[in-house]
Amino acid sequence: MSAPVVIRGGTVAEAGWTAPADVFLAGGKVTALAEPGTPAPRGVTEIDARGMLVLPGGVDPHCHVGFTSGDFTSLDDYAQCTTAAVFGGTTTIVDFAIPRPGQSPADAAHAQRARAAGGLCDSALHACVVEWDETVPEQLRSLVADGMPTVKMFTTYRGETMADEDTILRTMATLRDLGGMVVIHCEANHIIEDTQTRCSHDGRIGAEHMAATRPELAETASVAEVLAIAESLRAPVYFVHQSTPEAVELVAAARRRGVAAYSESVAHHLVLDDSLYAGATPERFVCCPPLRPRPVVDGLARHLATGEITTIGSDHCCYDLAQKESRRSDVRVMPNGLPGVETRLPVVFSEFVTGGGLPVTRFVELTAANPARANGLYPRKGTLMPGADADVAIWDPSAQWTITSEALHMATDYTPYEGMAVTGRPRTVLVGGRVVVHDGVLADPEPRGRHLAAGPVTSPGGRTRAARASR
Ligand SMILES: [Zn+2]
């Protein structure tokens, strides 16, 4: 059990409000939010947070740990990924159990859960369905009962993870009745394969041509199809890494018709644009969907303020430069994905709170509260209300620093944000009431991260039920 702590003199920021308050922690939980200066019992450790924001630790809803796709496996394990996470102010990650070809969803989930040890912070898992057979309903029932109510699906990557429309429909209907939800990567595979074939014939299939090989309309078409399935079934659905304003607007329009549909965006699609593919190192920016043109990026970011984007994830995928460079001449066989679990909160805070006037309450909602809600982890995570886990990011909103891969902790040798000047970073990060990071130094390397069993998913902003602990 962690010793009692009071965080004094800071401004607490929740999804709905901010106020000066002292935060009392004990036994791994938040025990009280109190008037500034409230006396503490003897023996309570005081942490000075004057001039700081006191935020619930970030919840990253989209984080791949040691992910195998094609010929490549991303390079981190739970110890490495969660170390990077806590340095960046994130105290809960949600990873994926993606089956290898022929592997069942349940076997993939059990294998990935067995690897979920040694973390510095808590984690949860999305399951994944690729193919339908008569055993899938029972597998889904036991996965939901086992704390995995969210199930990843893909409309792309034929032969690896692509699911057909029948499988998507049946999985969505089954999860609807179990209190779960499909979380889906939407890009119309037939359009992408055809576009890639034509690009290849023209000699335009290297990393510098990444954006053209996966057009925006492939995403729009696939989102529209999946929304129609969800609307027909009255099932909830969560779209991962939406990269265009059109895709977000389709989801928002469905939500206005009563569909429980949600948009996730990821930091790199909100900040970086496709001009990077014209630079000297285009392979460093190869991700799916690709980076988009600047007007598209800015149009997407405008939906942070409108409320039409539900969550911001990282889509962290930790390949190194040797992996990224090895197949740079053909995007069809390159490892897709960017490292980002550590930079998600600082980059988004700097660009949109410091630099864009986004209210800090909305920042907390997008990066902690809503990810917790959409993953059945609220109000245990994503809030500092009494009873929540004592995961806290004490945030210095005026710290100015420059992102360099050398100073980061992810298991790779580059960052797509190299050289970017940012304002704001976590000064002290607590997990379960213990200081884990302070002033850029790892204060407690003891791996106390637990695997969380998520409860039923709840509507972001809607009624909530608590998650269960699995140990
Ligand atoms: Zn992903």
From TrEMBL:
The keyword Hydrolase applies. Residues 53-436 form the Amidohydrolase-related domain. Keywords: Hydrolase, Metal-binding. It is an enzyme of class 3 (hydrolase). Its cofactor is Zn(2+). Residues 446-471 are annotated as: Disordered. Its EC number is 3.5.2.2. InterPro entries: Amidohydro-rel (IPR006680), Hydantoinase/dihydroPyrase (IPR011778), Metal-dep_hydrolase_composite (IPR011059), Metal_Hydrolase (IPR032466), Metallo-dep_Hydrolases_sf (IPR050378). It comes from the Bacteria. GO terms for molecular function: dihydropyrimidinase activity. Belongs to the metallo-dependent hydrolases superfamily. Hydantoinase/dihydropyrimidinase family. This is Dihydropyrimidinase. It comes from Nonomuraea corallina.
